[in-house]
Each structure stands twice: as C-alpha cells, then as structure tokens.
Amino acid sequence: MGKIRLLIADDHEMVRTGLRKVLENETDMEVIGEAADGRETVDMIKTLRPDVAIIDIAMPQLSGLEAMRAVRESGLDTRMVILSLHKKDAYVHQALLCGAMGYLVKPTQAAVMLDAIRTVNGGDYFLSPRIRSDFIQDFLRQLKEQGRPARPGLAGYRI
C-alpha cells in the first residue's frame, strides 16, 4: 500500500509546521499540501486529492465546516478530520453532519493524531478521547429524553 497523502488546513502557521514535523516522521504518511484558509482548503483538496485532510474549524474565508460541506458537495472522497479547540458536542455534531470522519481536540497527543489519521483512512470514524465520553453521555441523555432508557451496551436499540 502507498503512503497516506495528507493535507493540513489551519490558519496558524505554527500549527501547520508542528503537524508537518510530526507527520513527516511517519513512514506511511506524506504531507502533500498546506492551506491557511477555508477556500484554499477546498481548492487544494480538489487539486491535490489527498486521502485525508486535517482541518481546523475556525479559519478565514470559509470555516472548516463550510469547507468540508463544499468538499462533500463536490463529490470528492477525501476523508476529513477536524482538529479544533472546540470540544462542545454541538461542534462535533456539526462536523459529522458536514462530512468529518474524525474529530480531535487541540492540544492532542501525536500518537492520538496518528491513530486518528490511520483509522479514518481505513474508513472508520474516530473521536478524540477527550470528547468521546462526553459525546456518548450526551447521546444517552438524548435517548432518555426520548423515553428510551439507556441500558448497558444499548442492547436492543436500533439506531
């Protein structure tokens, strides 16, 4: 198998530089581009066709969410991972609705980032350990509000 081709999209040069340094040390990954705003992100994904794009939510021109929506509407199959300071469930929900397959909270450990990239590239979803529990608790709360009491393992539920 070839290397995982990556695009880094963040409006902070220091973040892009730091991510590049971490990712370039991996033998199975290759950074093929960097974008500093949402419009550039969409254009670079259309042009470079990365396997995975790591995208910040808060960027100029288009937000990361708007950029992801534009990529999905273009029919491109780049898998997208959000890397953001925002950890509220509403942001996670919106990111998933816009096409994210992964969501990481800044700061995150390099090992977690690498695991997320490999997981998403393999076709599975990945949520940051820092938000996973909160996300599940919110889901269980919503079930309870709908009159569907949560049971361990959600046995018997069709979602």
Tell me the overall shape: globular
Number of helices: 6
What's the SSE pattern? EHEHEHEHEHEH
Number of strands: 6
- Oligomer status: single chain
Overall domain count: 1
Proportion of helical residues: 40-55%
The side-by-side strand order for the widest beta sheet comes to: 2-1-3-4-5-6
- Rg computed from alpha carbons, rounded to a whole number of angstroms: 16 Å
CATH architecture tag = 3-Layer(aba) Sandwich
Note the beta-strand portion: 15-25%
Distance linking N and C termini: 34 Å
Question: Sheet with the most strands?
Answer: 6 strands, parallel
Summing up helix and strand content along with how strands pair, one would put the structural category as alpha/beta
**Can you identify the CATH superfamily?**
Response regulator
Could you tell me the CATH topology label.
Rossmann fold
CATH class: Alpha Beta
Give the helix/strand layout.
Blueprint: E1 4-9, H1 13-24, E2 29-35, H2 38-48, E3 52-55, H3 64-73, E4 79-84, H4 89-98, E5 100-105, H5 110-121, E6 126-127, H6 129-145
Parallel strand pairs: 1-2, 1-3, 3-4, 4-5, 5-6
Helix pairs in contact: 2-3
Summarize the structure.
By secondary structure, the chain is α/β, with parallel strands linked by helices. 45% of the residues lie in helices and 19% in strands. It has helices at 13-24, 38-48, 64-73, 89-98, 110-121, 129-145, and strands at 4-9, 29-35, 52-55, 79-84, 100-105, 126-127.
Q: Can you describe what's shown?
A:
This protein is α/β, with parallel strands linked by helices and 159 residues long. It has a single domain, classed as Rossmann fold, CATH 3.40.50.2300. The chain is built from 6 helices and 6 strands, in the order βαβαβαβαβαβα. The protein is globular and about 50 Å long. Residues 154-159 have low confidence and may be disordered.
